[in-house]
Amino acid sequence: MDPELEGWWQVFSLAIYSGYERMALEPFFLSERIRVAQVARAHGGFQQGYSEGHAATLQGVFTRNGLVHEDAGANVALPSPLPKDPARPPTGPPWKSSEVGEPAVLVQAVVAVAERIYGSAEGVPEAVGWLLDEEFAFGEPYGSAGEFLGDLADAVAHQGTCTDTSVEAVPFLMELVCDDNVAPGSRLVLLGDLLRLAASGPAAAVSLADRITALGGVWEESAAEYLTRRAIGSELPRLLSRWEDESDVARFALAALAALCGTRDQRVLSGLAALPAPAGSSRADVVSLVAAMLSDDREGLVLALDRLVSWLPRIAEKAASPNVDIQSLGLAILPDLVLEDVASGTATAEPDLP
User: Fold this and answer.
1) Alpha helix ranges (H) inside the chain
2) In contact, 247 and 98? CB cutoff 8 Å
3) CB atoms < 10 A from the CB of 68, how many?
4) Higher confidence at residue 69 or residue 86?
5) pLDDT band at 119 (very low <50, low <70, confident <90, very high)
6) In angstroms, rounded to a whole number, what is the distance separating the alpha carbons of residues 169 and 31?
7) Residues forming beta bridges with residue 16, ordered by sequence position
8) Cα angle 304, 310, 313; round to 5
9) Burial of 170 per CB tally in 10 Å (0-12, 13-18, 19+)
């Protein structure tokens, strides 16, 4: 199934941990994943995925063909006490509430933008054509704005993967973000989609770093990932021209998008420093990361990543590999950091439904 790995060994271990709540084991699993990846690298290999499941099911499907050694008992003693996740710093002050709007109003606004740009369903990008299709116009109404925005995001990048369709859809997404008929909360969601699209290349580089090194390869960003980010970057000045009229939370997302696209804008850097991000807060750490990338400050980037690693385990896991480039790491983790802060600090309201 994976021709590049023909002739390689796959190492598989089955361990059962009894009598513990699943969430209590997560810090231990993290340390084990880091340790196993280190062992793999030491032997010229790499860790490729991991899974867990019900013990009886796993034992039933475990293949013993070619098994070199097997322990009679699969129960494994856990360290005592179990490791715990590091304490998280406090979040920043709440952002101003941003409503996503009623789904019918949002759909109407999005379709109006599509009609304004493309006129009809003929010759429009694949990610937009369904909005102008007659079947869509007479389809079932959406129950929430979030459901519609999810369908739109999936049309642009199915399962988050950049394609030629993603590149073609960037001007449309940008037009939506600039449209005053799209509610502020929905504009934030669309900015989040753009953040993830712009970071798709660096995210893949980080996740595949050990594999590429083990196979003696060199990372190459896909054409679709590169062109999508370049298309966002070329449209970004239009969004940044509205900087003074944006809310603080929108500026936060826009600054991150500028960092992802390598856009050097002094107005953005100055505005970033004015955002509500008190020292010692998790938001201050994210702002430091954005500022370092906007300033092309490698020393500042190292310090910002070290700070984030100290309290965010999933970043510590990515940073543990010596094959991960720190610039790529910063870009790869930025969308989730920004969107988590926006979600936790913004009371996004949707209308009550009957």
Assistant:
1) 22-42, 55-61, 103-118, 126-129, 134-137, 145-156, 164-178, 184-198, 200-207, 209-214, 223-240, 248-260, 266-273, 282-294, 298-311, 313-319, 326-345
2) yes
3) 6
4) 86
5) confident
6) 40
7) 75
8) 110
9) buried
Res. 59: pLDDT tops 60: yes
Total residues belonging to the chain? 354
What percentage of residues in the chain have a pLDDT greater than 70?
A: 96
Give tens-digit pLDDT for 223-268: 999 999 999 999 999 999 999 999 999 999 999 999 999 998 889 9
Q: Which two tokens stand for residue 215?
A: 């196979």
pLDDT at 348 over 50: no
- Residue 38 C-beta-side C-alpha neighbours within 13 Å: 9
How far apart CA 167 and CA 41 sit, in angstroms, is 36
Do 27 and 82 form a contact (C-beta atoms < 8 A)? yes
DSSP structural state of residue 296: T
Q: Which residue has the tokens 């867990």?
A: 52
